């Protein structure tokens, strides 16, 4: 009788999980295929996540004194090209899994101080150890399968004094049905394969790899963002972005 009552109580208090922002028929494709397709329109879209990231991340990067920079998951080179303006003497390396994205990055600027590399970030990175004194990995982590390998590789290629910045779509958005996605010419909602990593899982994986997390920020969609892009209104008050800052444990 006690077991039955306990089960009845659990049933009454069970709340169905809902994903209000998930399209009815999402088309899930591989990360490489998805971003190769997306590359054709990526820079032309209004991306509220990028708007919020640039507001909070760029001032942190501008404070650095660096010589060698790694844009880990560089996409079309948005951050790499911004960093080139901030640090004209620095060497910048961008790596990405999508040849379509890399093609767009190369077309933007043929600067010899920016090198572009085709790399699967779930595998060992194509760089020697202890090279970079600034590492930025922007909006990539939802496509990382093995966090332990990812953070171990970030540590390996970083100098002892390096600062590391990881940004991503907030897990709260994943739980509401939002992940990296775009709408193609056939009006299909295309989702490159992704997964929801909790902030604690990311923190623990970084720590286990020998990195020390020094700051975590969580940023909501706010009135300022809505003023920039009305499409952000549907996310008003919801955590949209996280930023983690870290360095090699000292």
What would your notes on this structure say?
The structure is a single chain. By secondary structure, the protein is an alpha/beta fold. It has one domain: Rossmann fold. The protein is 34% helix and 26% strand. The protein has helices spanning 2-13, 31-38, 48-62, 78-86, 99-108, 147-157, 171-175, 199-208, 223-228, and strands at residues 27-29, 68-72, 91-96, 114-118, 132-138, 158-169, 182-183, 189-192, 211-220, 239-248. The strands form 2 sheets. A 7-stranded mixed β-sheet has the order 4-3-2-5-6-10-9, with helices on both faces. Strands 1-8-7 form a 3-stranded mixed β-sheet, with helices on one face. α6 links the parallel β5 (132-138) and β6. It is globular. The protein starts with a helix and ends with a strand.
Distance between the termini: 57 Å
| Spatial extent as radius of gyration | 20 Å
Number of extended strands: 10
Strand line-up across the major sheet: 4-3-2-5-6-10-9
Percent in strands: 25-35%
The shape is: globular
User: How many structural domains are formed by the residues?
Assistant: 1
Run of helices and strands? HEHHEHEHEEHEHEEHEHE
Classify the fold: give the CATH topology: Rossmann fold
